[in-house]
Structures are given as C-alpha cells and as structure tokens.
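Revision sheet: structure tokens.
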Amino acid sequence: MTEKKAKNIFTNGPIAPDFIGKSIQNHSTKKGIGGHSIFLGQVRADTIDGRLVAAIEYTCYEAMATEKMHEIREAIFAKYELSCLHVYHSLGKVAAGEISLFVFTSSVHRKAAIHACEELVEKIKSTLPIWGKEIFDNETHQWKENK
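Predicted:
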C-alpha cells in the first residue's frame, strides 16, 4: 500500500455556500454511503469589551498545518470506517456570518460519520497551527482564543 499525499485544506477567504452544496451533491452518486455528518464553523459577531467582532483574519504555518492535518486524517480513517472525509479551512479575512470551516464525513452507517466528524473538529481546533485575529467594527483587533 502506498502512502497518501497530504491534501491542502486551505482556501482563501470564506467557504462559499455553493461550494458546500456542490460537495454534498457530488456524493449523491456514491450509493454505498448511508450517512453523512457535516460541521460548518461560522464566524460569530461576538461583543467583547463593548466591541463587535466584524471578521476574523485566519493565518497559519501552511506546511506544518498541512502535515498535521494529514496525520489527523490518517488517524481518523484508521479509527472509523469512513467512505469519505473532507476538510476545508479558510485563510485570510472572513466576515461575521460567513463560513470558515467545513468538515464533511461519510460512511456506510451514520454513527461512524457522526463520531468521526465530531472528533475531527475537536482535533482541528486543538492541534492545528491556525490562528485567528478578531477584527472589531472599530478597526481594532486582538488574537482569538480557541474554545
């Protein structure tokens, strides 16, 4: 068996709703799949110290994040019986209300897809070297804490 190449999960700017819809539609021809689980991470317009979050600007060390995501992906495939696993994460500025993370898992039975999706999101949030700078409506900014 040959080793799989690490996939680039990054996209510039927000993840478009039509891209998400097309990704779902592309799986309709895969008739062995019985369940999908999808997580969409959306930028919130939080109020912090009286300032409204207007956007988050995401940055990362791409080579390191791509390699780490590959390790996570392989571990998830080894743990769960999945048909497909897709991850897309924004880089650059994403406005409040827009999507910055799209995780999509598929399996023969729903539970594997659901559990794999949840674990993937937690690992992405806790281990990938991706940072977000909150940009407020008054043009000030601060680094975001992952929760």
